[in-house]
Amino acid sequence: MVGFMQENGADLHVVAAYQDSALDERHMALFQRMLGEARTFALGSLKIGISSLEVEKGLTMLPTVVHQFKEIQGLDAAFGIFPMGPEKMAVIARSSARELDLGAMMRRLGGGGHPGAGSAILKGSLESVHQQVLDCIQSTKVEETSVRHLMSPVPEKLLAGNTVRQAADSLQKTGKTALPVVDDEDRFLGTISEKTIASIRQDRQWEQPVTAMLNREVPSVSPEDSLRHALLLMSRSETGLLPVILKGKLAGEITRASIILNMYSF
């Protein structure tokens, strides 16, 4: 099963958690079927998975199975639907995304729970209950937090006319790994980093304007972009933060840590 999980994209932490769990060979078989037959789709910027499967009578720990399924597939939320008897289906949901309130969703189906976990018992066939759950998910409005709510003022920035030496002094003073550079009208031009400064080999380079050593290929976001979009762009940032640009001007910055802490519960 470990090899199967890794082939399906599970990282080592997820594999270790699976190995430490109390799941047995019956759960392994269910996992394989879920991974092979589940449907995944987008709800806004969230990745959702839903799986409807017949299970062995008396099989317990189904919430753990759904949780592990979510982790293995890298989902924001997972829904499992399992028969509990003739025309009686258990719906189990797990989520790590703050944008979803699973408890509220399950209450719409006659069940309950809290934002990160919920369940319900529905009457009907596996196929009809699957459609009910799918309709419930797709009719849910995802309230996504925008960059505007977490952006902060830029504590230090450089002007295009500053020298590379002045940039090095500012980097050392602030402890930053890179600083934004703007023109006289606060238009964002790019960044200059410690890495660039460390590459200097000639004395005359210290007196050049920062624009001579500028990194202009810098990922940035607008105040109205979603946090998930910002986090995706953050993978291209070497500094752990992104400049926030409004009408071409530097309006603030947003950090990786602030995004992750806001999006997920720990």
From TrEMBL:
Gene3D superfamilies: 3.10.310.30, CBS-domain. GO terms for biological process: tRNA processing. Residues 151-210, 214-266 form the CBS domain. One of its GO terms (molecular function) is nucleotide binding. Coiled coil: none annotated. InterPro entries: CBS_dom (IPR000644), CBS_dom_sf (IPR046342), DHH_sf (IPR038763), tRNA_nt/polyA_polymerase (IPR052390). Keywords: CBS domain, Magnesium, Metal-binding, Nucleotide-binding, Nucleotidyltransferase, RNA-binding, Transferase, tRNA processing. Its cofactor is Mg(2+). Pfam families: CBS (PF00571). PANTHER family: A-ADDING TRNA NUCLEOTIDYLTRANSFERASE, POLYA POLYMERASE. Belongs to the tRNA nucleotidyltransferase/poly(A) polymerase family. This is CBS domain-containing protein. It comes from Desulfobotulus mexicanus.
